[in-house]
Amino acid sequence: MAGKTISEKILSAKSGEDARAGDVVVCRVDCALATDGSAPMALDYFEAMGGQRVSDPRRIVFALDHYAPAPSRNTAQLHQRMREFAALHGVTLFEVGEGIGHQLIVESGRAIPGSLVLGADSHSVTYGALNAFATGIGSSDLAAIMIAGRIWLRVPESIKVTLTGRLPVGVYPKDVALALAGLLGADGATYQALEFAGPAVRDLDLEDRLVLANFAVEMGAKNAIFPADDRTYAYLDGRAAAPFAAVAPDAGAHYCREISLALDSLAPQVALPHQVDRVTGIANAAGTAVQMVYLGTCTGGRVRDFHQARDVLRAAGGIARGVQLVVTPASRTVLETLMRDGTLADFIAWGAVVGTPGCGSCCGTCGAIPGDGVNVISTANRNFKGRMGNGQAAIYLASPASCAAAAARGAIADPREVMP
Amino acid sequence: MTGRARVFGGDVNTDYIITSRRKRESLDPQVLRRYLFEELDADFAASVEPGDLIVAGKNFGCGSAMEVAVTAVVGAGIPGVLAPSFSRTYYRNAVNNGLLPVVCDTSGIHEGDRLTVLRGEGLAVRNETTGETIAAAALPRIMWEIVAAGGLVPYFRRHGDFQV
Predict the structure, then answer these.
(1) Is B19 in the A-facing interface, judged by CB distances under 8 Å?
(2) A298-339 pLDDT, tens per residue?
(3) What is the residue range of B128's domain?
(4) Contact, A274 vs A385, CB < 8 A?
(5) Which residue among A98, A232, A247, A259 is least enclosed by CB atoms within 10 Å?
(6) Same domain, residue pair A182 and A321
(7) The complex's ipTM?
(8) Cβ of B92 and A187 within 8 Å?
């Protein structure tokens, strides 16, 4: 019998079956997240299904992140409904201001090697950075998990993505993610897993892996998954919610496709409006005027991202006139770290607007909204028309350093030119 | 399952199926069905009849994973969607809400064609208008049972858990 990919091995363990790509299996779920964007509908399904109690409330997490803080009476009422349900059933609820649900799942050690962690939000793929099988599900799925603790899943074929070489100065994991999206296209990995491998993986910090895993859904992937190594164990030390064992692919595992990316040959990348896979080298967009710069989200809102942006802005001496810089840490822990190490003071001194930890402006549900005709450059993962709440704005996606370079110049620029 | 083909192109995203503007007003499928596909075909909602089948190009339901993009279609009495490929979240949500996703070549189907979805070992689509029969991918057993039950809600009301 042929060997198995990491995804096949985890889904075999969680279903108790010999799970192979293409099979549909019913799996026990270790943890499932619902946000204020998906939980209200899940509660409707829960009631309609005849749900009386949550079978194992320790496995369910609610996060109030899409409307943080609630910008309207309707959204405030959604929050109230989630709070009441969570209190009644003993479900963990992360309050407004705690941060983005995905970041909180990772920070709280709920995503561990070999685990099955799902979320009623497409960017739940992020947890694959920790050698977990992680994917986005619907509200009805979440309701079924609350009742029965299980879900049906089709076992994905895997694309092996081999990373080689070292990232050049001024080039970051976000550039790798954008380059992959350009290479595969927005539906290039539909129904499939991206399994990362290769000598460059061990050089990637855990936060770097989160960026790559997060972006997998922009290529249509079901999940992304990294091997576990010393960096994984270091991150989980004192944090892991349960004991775990790393899951490695078998020798002879079958991959439906193999691609490789030489990191040392990459330049800074940018996704042009309004498609995530309209990716080009940043030189091809240099000089495009920008009026709003957004640093944050589940892709680019962690400590490392803000440090990279700060370094560029410090070298440049601050923000150009006419640019609104919006800073939204992915979690309160990130915010506190930035406060302690002085990064936040720098951003505020340069004139940045600081938002509540959460999804912020990313999907236009709360936070700053760009005006008509405004060009935005953002560390986020989506640039669809209207994504940030105004279809008359245009969104470019880039690394934190490239976004900071644009903030410093008032126009898209190669960060290597701003910070030689 | 027999119905009239209502044809759309490829890469129809969930916002084209039902705009997020409408989602903010209501989650009720009977309200949302009035605005189905309004960005693509302003007359669709008024002309849709129960039993109509949606026929689309590749990557149907891409974009957001919002489940209302399925429940609004079901609310209009549409029992199935035919496309050569679906976004995975749309496919999942379709199964869970009793909407039959049929993966098949849709290039030879025209607006108004009368279609019959045949269920045997696999799935097939007979185009009664042209006489052509199109092979379609079979649904794995558990997905089929959920669709046949009418979705996860009736399935769970009956079984209380997945039956494996």
Answers:
(1) no
(2) 999 999 999 999 999 999 999 999 999 999 999 999 999 999
(3) 2-159
(4) yes
(5) A259
(6) no
(7) 0.93
(8) no
